[in-house]
């Protein structure tokens, strides 16, 4: 009797799982905060248009969060199906629930590298030219869950400064995302701030991709107004993640759609990624282990 009950329970569970997989009519995309919401929605509109036919859903919905944590909590709660995260954001999810999401792809820079940089900028008219010039000044970070905007500077700046960051500068704060941070540096709210870029190409162009390049392309930043004070060691490009419990067939279709995107629709690929990239490559959790370990030891989760 017990055996029959167990078998029935297993069968019902399998049916429920199959039904859940078949019933996914809406594919939910989380978009990180830190950039103007209208711009984020516009950049991802091509996904709304193209994905339904590619993966077999009726509707694709966009959820632009106010900050990084909004997307992180949505992925942890199972209310989002896909997002593109920084490595630190993924580490936060992994440390909270290692089974919540699955990293499947990351971008490849135009020079073939699989990383990018945290870049500290200041106003060109500030008189600062190197990282040690931030002594006694106000330093802004992008977001507490940003890899380039907070985690990596927290870990690597002390060596460059020869002292803990909070002992070296007068004050630190957060800019509310990368775009806003740079605007706050330009306004003088912060004397310097950390954002990100590919490090490929020229600083005067905002590099080939990253926040600075996006702001230049949108016409809201003139690179002549900024000076680069510091560049971090290479950071692993953030992952494309999907909800682990998603139907395997849909995962495969979505992955193929993304892998094909650089050639099937280069404009869509560039809009979603925010600049020039060579394409995607496959990754798994192992690629992000150094960042997971850094986050665990520095922030604790």
UniProtKB/TrEMBL annotation:
One Pfam family, short name: Phosphonate-bd
Signal peptide feature range: 1-21
GO biological process, alphabetically ordered: organic phosphonate transport; transmembrane transport
Name the UniProt record assigns to this protein: Phosphonate ABC transporter substrate-binding protein
UniProt keyword annotations, A-Z: Signal
Gene Ontology cellular component annotations, sorted alphabetically: ATP-binding cassette (ABC) transporter complex
NCBIfam families: 3A0109s03R, PhnD
Originating species: Rhizobium glycinendophyticum
Gene: phnD
InterPro entries: PhnD, Phosphnate-bd
Family of this protein: Belongs to the phosphate/phosphite/phosphonate binding protein family.
């Amino acid at each position: 009797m017990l055996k029959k009950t167990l078998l029935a329970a297993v069968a019902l569970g399998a049916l429920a799982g199959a039904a859940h997989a078949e019933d996914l009519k809406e594919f939910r995309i989380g978009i990180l905060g830190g950039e103007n919401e209208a711009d984020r929605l516009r950049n991802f509109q091509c996904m709304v248009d193209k994905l339904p036919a590619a993966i077999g859903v009726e509707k694709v919905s966009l959820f632009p969060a106010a900050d990084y944590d909004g997307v992180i909590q949505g992925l942890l709660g199972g209310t989002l199906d896909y997002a593109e995260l920084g490595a630190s954001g993924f580490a936060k999810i992994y440390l909270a629930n290692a089974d919540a999401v699955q990293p499947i792809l990351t971008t490849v820079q135009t020079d073939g590298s699989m990383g990018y940089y945290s870049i500290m900028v200041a106003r060109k008219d500030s008189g600062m030219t190197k990282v040690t010039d931030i002594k006694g000044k106000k330093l802004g970070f992008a977001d507490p869950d940003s890899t380039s905007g907070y985690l990596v500077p927290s870990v690597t700046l002390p060596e460059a400064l020869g002292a803990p960051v909070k002992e070296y500068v007068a004050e630190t704060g957060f800019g509310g995302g990368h775009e806003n941070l740079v605007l706050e540096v330009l306004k003088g709210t912060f004397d310097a701030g950390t954002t990100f870029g590919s490090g490929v190409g020229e600083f005067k162009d905002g590099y080939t991709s990253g926040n600075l390049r996006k702001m230049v392309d949108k016409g809201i930043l003139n690179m002549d107004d900024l000076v680069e004070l510091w560049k971090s060691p290479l950071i692993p490009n953030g992952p494309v993640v999907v909800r682990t419990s998603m139907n395997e067939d849909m995962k495969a279709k979505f992955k193929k759609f993304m892998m094909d995107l650089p050639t099937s629709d280069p404009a869509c690929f560039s809009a979603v990624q925010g600049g020039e990239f060579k394409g995607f490559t496959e990754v798994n959790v192992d690629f992000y282990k150094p960042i997971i370990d850094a986050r665990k030891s520095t922030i604790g989760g």
